[in-house]
Amino acid sequence: MHQHNTEDVGIDISKSKFDVSFPDRSKSVVYHYTPAGMKKFIATLMKLQPKRVCLEATGNWENRLVACLHKHQIPVSVVNPRLIRDFARAKNQLAKTDEIDARIIREYAQVMDPRLTPPLTDAQRKMREFTSRREQTSKIIIQEKNRLETIMDQDVIELIQQSIDFHKEQLRQIEKELKALINADEESRKRSKILQSVPGIASITAALLISDLPELGTLNRKQISRLVGVAPTNRDSGTMRGRRTIGGGRVRIRNGLYMPTVTALRHNPIISAFYKRSSKTESQKWSHSWPPCTNCSSFSTPWSKKENNGRQT
User: Fold this and answer.
1) Distance CA 50, CA 45 (A)
2) Coiled-coil stretches, from where to where (predicted)?
3) What domains sit in the chain, N to C, each tagged with a CATH number?
4) Distance between CA atoms of 4 and 49, rounded to whole angstroms?
5) How far apart are CA 164 and CA 242, in angstroms?
6) CA–CA separation, 178 vs 156, rounded Å?
7) Number of continuous H segments (helices) and E segments (strands) in the chain
8) How many angstroms from the chain centroid is the CA of residue 275?
9) Cβ contacts of residue 10 below 8 Å, gap of 6+?
10) Any residues with CB less than 8 A from the CB of 288 and at least 6 apart, and which?
11) For residue 311, what pLDDT is reported?
């Protein structure tokens, strides 16, 4: 096994190709986003042995390449695109091309040293796709129900209702499959049991956390909160104390935690007490986007207790 060097590789990825910025080349190298193209790229990396390969999260286009890199045990960091753009602006790099983006991503990795993205197990990868499909199906049902409110023709109403019934059945099948995936995998079953010990979290939310937040259990609650995007951000200057806000991070996790947190406000005394302390006056009440912050602290707590033989952390 070769020693990893201290240089990073940056990738700008798209549907049909990916541009790669290597530390020893002035121009990027373009690879076709095909099995043959990835094989050629991996062969180059195996010789180079970079410190890490860094690329942006691009709405799932990156998944195949990330899985391939992990398969060959090549360190990889998938970062938020907003961080890359902010880094480019800080360097006064306003022009934007695929080649420039690949170089900026490599420079970002070199300067900021982003956290490595952990590999997904086969169960986690399948769970992620099923939870994504569940989210899509739920949105379709809402859209169809909204259409019912504006349609007058009875024949069209019946067609829309058939579509709603079909997608509701698909939703039931997806949820059944998610539960089966958890039960079939020992590690997922263990994680799900720990997560569901938190009032408000059931099997579907547990599946979302297991698949989309594999770092859970390896980071503390503050790090997890920042990763998900529910850590309140200060807006203070001098004597002015601005309103705390949340944002960024993993939107699917944040959205998926909202309703479980609303439920937990009734049934989880820790979250309920925290919410009441944080909303003593009307001017301090949280907006609708704040409650997931409490759940993020909560679901890391049982993990810490279980993984540390019951010791409080």
Assistant:
1) 7
2) 157-191
3) 8-112 (3.30.420.40), 122-210 (no CATH), 225-234+243-307 (no CATH)
4) 5
5) 45
6) 33
7) 12, 7
8) 25
9) 20, 21, 53, 54, 55, 102, 103, 104, 105, 106, 107, 108, 109
10) 258
11) 38
Q: Which residue has the tokens 């991503």?
A: 105
- DSSP-derived letter for residue 15 is S
Q: Which residue has the tokens 């939870």?
A: 131
Copy the structure tokens of residue 109. 């990795």
> What angle in degrees, to the nearest 10, is found between the helix axes of 35-48 and 63-71?
40
**Alpha carbons 77 and 51: distance in angstroms, whole number:** 11
Backbone φ and ψ for 55, nearest 5 degrees, come out as: -150, 165
Of the candidates 277, 124, 299, the one whose C-alpha atom is nearest the C-alpha of residue 200 is 299
User: What does the pLDDT read at residue 59?
Assistant: 79
Burial bucket for residue 88 (CB in 10 Å: 0-12, 13-18, 19+): buried
DSSP annotation of 284: G
Are residues 45 and 65 in contact, defined by beta-carbon separation less than 8 angstroms?
A: no
Residue 277: which residues within 8 A CB-CB, separation 6 or more? Answer: none
The reported pLDDT for the residue numbered 241 is 76
The amino acid at 235: R
The alpha carbons of the chain give a radius of gyration, in whole angstroms, of: 22
Output the pTM of the full model: 0.76
Q: Give 155-193 pLDDT, tens digit per residue.
A: 999 999 999 999 999 999 999 999 999 999 898 999 999
CA-to-CA distance for 182 and 160, rounded, in angstroms?
A: 33
Query: Which portions of the chain are predicted below pLDDT 50?
Result: 1, 282-283, 288-289, 308-313
Token pair 């983006």: residue = 101
